[in-house]
Every structure is written in C-alpha cells, then in structure tokens.
Amino acid sequence: MLPTLRGRIETRLFLIIVVGLPVTLLYALFVGGLPYDGGLLLMLLGVLLALLVVGVILDPLYILIQRLRWDRDWPFAYQFFFSIIEFVIVLSLASLEWIPWLDEFAFQRGETIRLASFHFAWVFLIGFVLLLGPLAVLFVRWRYKGGRFGRL
Amino acid sequence: MFRVTIEASDGGSGSTLSETRELAHGDSLIFGRDPGPGGVTLPGQGVSRRHFELVADAQGLTVTDLGSTNGTQLAGVGLGSARITTGQRISAADTSVTVRYEEVEAQTAPVGPQSRYITPATPENNGLPPDIPARGTVDVSEVHTGGRPVSEIAYCAIGAGIGSFVWIDHLRCYGVHEDDIVAIGPEDIPYATYARYCANSQIPDHERLRSNSASTPDNIWGFPGYALRESVTTGNPRYAFQVFGEPTLAESYTPRAGRVFRSFDREMKRINWSRMFRKGLVQALRKTSDGRYAIYWRASRDVVPEEQRNQVTLAKIVHVSTGYPATRFVDDFQDFLGRHPEMRSLVANAYEPHEHIYQKIESSTEPVNIMVRGRGIVASRILQRLSEARARNPNIVILHSIRSPIRGQQGAKYGWARRPVRGHVELQPFNWPKASWGGDVRLKYENADAEERGRILSQLGGTTTAERSDWIAIGERGGEEGWYRAIFGSVKHIAVRGEKLGIDIKTPDGFDQSFEADYLVDCTGLVADLSRSLFLADLLNTYELPQNHAWRERDGTWQPGPRTGLEVSNAFEIEGLRNGSGRVYAAGQVTAGGPYLAVDSFLGLQYAALRSVDDIGANRLTAMRPIGPARSAIQWLRWCAGSTP
Ligand SMILES: Cc1cc2nc3c(=O)[nH]c(=O)nc-3n(C[C@H](O)[C@H](O)[C@H](O)COP(=O)(O)OP(=O)(O)OC[C@H]3O[C@@H](n4cnc5c(N)ncnc54)[C@H](O)[C@@H]3O)c2cc1C
C-alpha cells in the first residue's frame, strides 16, 4: 500500500463505519441473540472507537516509518502486524482503565477479552482483505490517492 | 564489382527514387533518412537516419539492419542480416526498396549517384504528403473535399500500443460504445511493440517483467492482480503470499511476460479491439474549424488497395500514445558504426534483435570476451542470458562496463531514505520508488512547479535494477570464478583491433585503459527525443507546443536542461491543442517530465487513462460520465464474467 496521512485516516474511518459497525451489530447478535444485549453491544462499539482513536494517534508514526523506506510504501505485512499491535494496545489500555468509555473491570476478565478478540478478528480480517484489492473495485481512484476517496 | 540498381518508393508521401551505384567487393552502401556521405537517402516517414546497409562480397549482396526503429524486412520477414538475390524487395517502414544487381567489369566508369524525387518533400511541410495543410486549423469542408476518404468518430487513439489500449479499456468500462472509438497504429496487437522490446532484451514469455501485481493493463481496478491469478491457476499460494510480504519479507512479485500477454488477449476480445483497430501510421493532426481534429493517416497496404491508403479521420477526442521514438545508440557507438559498418554484427543495442550474438558465442569453443555496457535492468537480463550461455560455452568471459563504482552509502538520497546498493548497482523493485505511483511522492510531485518537479525527478530517477538473488549471484559468483569482471570508467573510443573490438575506457581516477572484446552489447537505453518521430515533430512545430525539461543542478541552482516530453495538464491534456470542446490527451513516454513520474509503466498508463477519461466526463465533453462505486462494481462483475462492458 502507498498511504498518505490523510489517506490512512480516511480509509480507517471508512473501514470502521462500513465494515466495523455492521460486523459489530452482527457479532453482538450472534453472541447474545435477540433482543440485543446492550452491555455487550456498547462494549464492542467502545472497543471499535478505541481502535479508531489509537489508530489515528499512531498514523503519523507510521508515516514516519514510511519516510525511512526508500519506496515510501507500507507493505501488507506491516499493515497486518501493526493492526494487531493496535488491538493489543487497546486491550492493555482498557485493562489499565485508561479508556474512559470502557467498563473499568471488563478487560480484566478472560471472557470479555475472548469476546473482544473474536470481534476484532472479524473486523480486522474483513477490512484487511478489502485492502488487498476489492476496495478498488468500488473506488477506482482510491489506490492512486494514497487511500483517500473521491476524485483525483 | 556489382552494378546495383535501386528503386525506392515511399508509400506515405508517394515519393520515389531510382539510382544506380557500383559496389566493389567489400564495399558497403548505407540507406536511410540521413545516411551520411555516399549513402542513399530514402524518402518516407519511419525511415531511420541510418536504416540498413548493403555489403558486397564475392558471392553477392547482404542486407543488414542498422538498428532501425521500424526494422528492415526482406520479402515481408523482419531481419538482422540476410543475403539478397537480385530483384528482391526490402522494406524499411513504409518505404520499399527494390535492388537489382549484376556482376560487371571492374573497369566500367562509375555511374554517379542520380537521385531523383518525383514528388520532392518541401521543407515547409516536413516531408509530409503535400495535401496536408501546414496551417494549424483547417476548414471541415476542405477536409471533405481534400481527396482522402473521410471517416468520423468520437474518440480516436493514436499509436494503438499499450497506452492506447489501456485508455480505450477505460472508455469501454465507462460505457462508451465500440463503434464510437478507433485506434490507429501499425501493429495488429496492442502489445506487439512491447513484446518485441521484451524479446530482444531477453525477456522470453516465461520470464518475469518488472511490474507489480496490481499493474494490470487488462483490468482498470488492479484486482484481481496477476499474483492472485497466478496462484489460482497454478494452485500455488506462494505468489499471493509474495505480495503479502513484499518487498521487505519477500522479493517483489512480478508477473510472467506470457501471462500478461494472455491477459491482453482476453481483454482485447472482451472489448472488441479488432473492431476498433485501424492498421496504419498517423502522419499529422490538425484542428478543424468545428472544434474537432483531422487525423491524416496512411492505412497499411495489408488492408486497403494502394490508391486508397491515404485517409483522414475526424475525431472529437484524441489520445496520443506513440511510445519511444527510437532505439538509442550512444555517440561513440554510432560513430563506430559509421566508421566500421563491416563490424555491425559484433555490436548490438540490447533493444534490437541480437540473437545471432548468443548463437555465435554458444556454438564457439574458443574463449569469447563480451562487453556489456550499462547497469540497468536490461543489463541484468543480458548478463543473465550470458550466464546461461556459459552452460554451452564455459569460455565466455563477461566484461561489464559501468561508469563509476557505487558503494553502499552512495545510493540516491531523498529525504531520510537512501536507495540500497549491491554490486555497484542501485536496487529498486520498479523503475521509480513505489510511492510515485500513488503515495505521497505522487501527490508532492503533481503539486510541484516545473523546477521542483525537475528536482524530484532527478533525485528519484537514475538507473536501477531489481533485487533478484539470481542476478546478484551472477556478479558475485562470476567475480570469484573469474568469468565476470566489472570495469569502471566511461567509454572513450571504440575501434577495430584485428578481428576484435578495441575499447578505450577512462577510469574514474583518470587513467586510460584498453580492452579487447569479441562482442559489445549496449544496454544504455532508448531515445526519448520526440522530434525523432515525424508525427510528433510536425505537431510540435505546427502548434509550437511547450515541452518539459530535464533539470540539472549547476553551481547550486537548478536549471532546465534538454527537452523531454510534451507538456500536459494534470489530467494529461495537451492544452496547446484544445479546440472548443475538442481535446487531445497523451500518455506514456511522450509525456515524460510531466505531472506524473512513472508515465512509462503499465500502472502509469492506467493512471493517465483514468485522469483523462475522468476529465472528459467531468467537463461534459461527451455523453460519457465518470464512474462511481455502483457502475464500477457492475463493470467489474462483467470483467469477471468475461462479458462485453
Ligand atoms: C524493454 C521494456 C520493458 C518494459 N517493461 C515494463 C514492465 O515490466 N512493466 C511496466 O509497467 N512497464 C514496462 N515498460 C514500460 C511501458 O509499460 C511500455 O513501454 C509500454 O509499451 C508503453 O506503452 P506506449 O503505449 O507508450 O507505447 P507502445 O506500447 O510502444 O505503443 C506505441 C505504438 O505507437 C506506434 N506509433 C508510433 N508512431 C506512430 C504514428 N505516427 N502513428 C501510429 N502509430 C504510431 C508504435 O509503432 C507503437 O506500436 C517497459 C518498456 C520497455 C521498453
């Protein structure tokens, strides 16, 4: 990938909204059934928001790493690796109770961590697969725009 | 001695000439647009400066192509060198030359050259057919009464090579009907010119190109890329994984030439290329009084009777992608060929056919020294081919001529990053840093002014090769075993020493060194000089079109140097040709130095196509509109199904 800073942020937002939200709704439905388990849904949405915030904070750092690379690219392997790192950071921050909108005790319990991990796995894998090419099927110009949407 | 009668006629302008010459055994005679003293000046567009030569010996005459752009054909077959019998016809581009000869007594008084042009080219119209007006704008009624058959079309692509194909593929996916498009070019198949360059520079079908998986000239979305397709059809997941890990954890994936060609075949069928294609060469383009363009062209003799070959097409939107104007011979090389035409078979430009050299050195049992000049990707391919030849003749020694050594920390620098170096060659997966195609470098470069573009271009450009373990091993193993030797310095002079070539080199520290070689393969490139194309030269002159420049740093300031490509807007429009709602766009090497670095690459051609097709839609020049997500997805599904767009 050849993301720019604005491209990273736009693509991140896009994936959270277009992949993250529906996957979260489906996942909560699958785990908790109907009617929705409000606590679970709120927790997963909270994790999603935390992922977005942590990601946006880290994006400038990734851009710095890109600048050190001659090709100024971002290998898919890095994308894969750092996405997982971002999730680990969110879990750690949550268990330290540093994320105000997440339940103080939730991430000190194995069961919640397991649920959040599976939820993340789905959100992440679907988004990652889209980045490998399918996103360009909908947005022909996206790959030339460093990950931004719209006209060239 | 032979008396040689030469009759030439140029299909393009209708010029003809007839001449008689005497050739003693051992004499040679050079034919071309500007063959030098004593040579035969051939009329016709597409004839190279020195196109081919005839050499006489006791048995008869031999014709040898001199690395001409459009090649030399004997009885319809392209050639490097061949014997001819009397009365045979040689073709050089659109010009055909019939040579008759007979043995005569040596005492016969020589007959002086008698050139005679029936329709001489006038200087005012650059050798174009006289019916093409020299003015910038012609009246449509004049076009209709000019005597050429007229056809009218909405979109016309000039070149019919890969750039044209990609542009038309975009138009078709954007919903333009096949009957509204034509592509005019000399090759039936869009990748023919490219495939010829590949074959000559030793990239057979099974070899891999220097192109990324998502650079897919047959698919506007870049998905599925070639890696995924190769994994699916071979059942081997490693190619897809290569894309995942490249370029840090795995060598960059590149597609096999043959697979790319087959993908073209499939897409050609899908968009109905053969229906849109017109075989011929474009002579000139003129604005018309009704906001269109008149494209004067000459149809190939394969498809129309002789008297109907000159045609004119009126089009509203035109696209120019005519590729490289010529193969380059560096000055010392050109100079050597001029002095020693008889040594022609010992020296070759890597982009011209030179298979005979490999055949010779492989079948020889003697020691052979071969010098390879240059350190780019083509040199790597030639070195690879030579190392394969060593399996047949282990006495081959490779002398690799490189201008100056480059150590680890001397690679090009841009910002905080430095280009890696290995074996005195700078390494880069593709011909530009990847972010030039779509990352921050593309953005920064597009937004820069001419000077800053020039600076970025010179910082990021330069000769590089791909990091391939087999290529690195050739230099390292060959160096240890003594059959590969890197020679630093610039070539000063090439001469004949007995049966061999004598090559004088000035080393970086100022010493003169001399080497002997049996063969020399020059890998220093292709000429990008637009004025070498008659069509472009006329366009530049008629409309005084501005050109880009290569910029150079001198005494701390950056200054414009030699001219490069045509100046185009960020949407690849040649603004100097705008005519009401008529537009001319360009792509490929002819736009070098313009708004995008990697113009001469598959993905660069796709980018240029997208920009120009979007521009047509956004400005409502025709009924076509840019595609959004829904239409894009539908078109993609059609692509997958193989159904017409
Ligand atoms: C050896 C080599 C290897 C390359 N490898 C790669 C690679 O691996 N990956 C990559 O992305 N890019 C590669 N490129 C760069 C680029 O993608 C190709 O050169 C590509 O073919 C360029 O397309 P084009 O349309 O500009 O030119 P071409 O495909 O050459 O088409 C131009 C056509 O216009 C015709 N023409 C010229 N004058 C006229 C006229 N007056 N009227 C009508 N027709 C005319 C020519 O005969 C030619 O057929 C390579 C280039 C070379 C030379």
UniProtKB/TrEMBL annotation, chain A:
Q: Which domain of life is it from?
A: Bacteria
Tell me where the transmembrane regions lie. 12-34, 40-64, 76-99, 119-142
This protein's UniProt keywords: Membrane, Transmembrane, Transmembrane helix
**Name used for this protein in its record:** Uncharacterized protein
Q: Which organism is it from?
A: Allosediminivita pacifica
Automatic annotation (TrEMBL), chain B:
According to the record, the residues making up region (Disordered) are 113-134
The record's InterPro entries line, in alphabetical order, gives: FAD/NAD-bd_sf, FHA_dom, SMAD_FHA_dom_sf
Pfam families the record matches? FHA (PF00498)
Q: Which PROSITE patterns match?
A: FHA_DOMAIN
Q: Which SMART domains match?
A: FHA
User: For the FHA domain, which residue ranges apply?
Assistant: 29-79
Q: Which domain of life is it from?
A: Bacteria
In its UniProt entry, what is this protein called? Answer: FHA domain-containing protein
What organism, scientifically named, is this protein from?
A: Allosediminivita pacifica
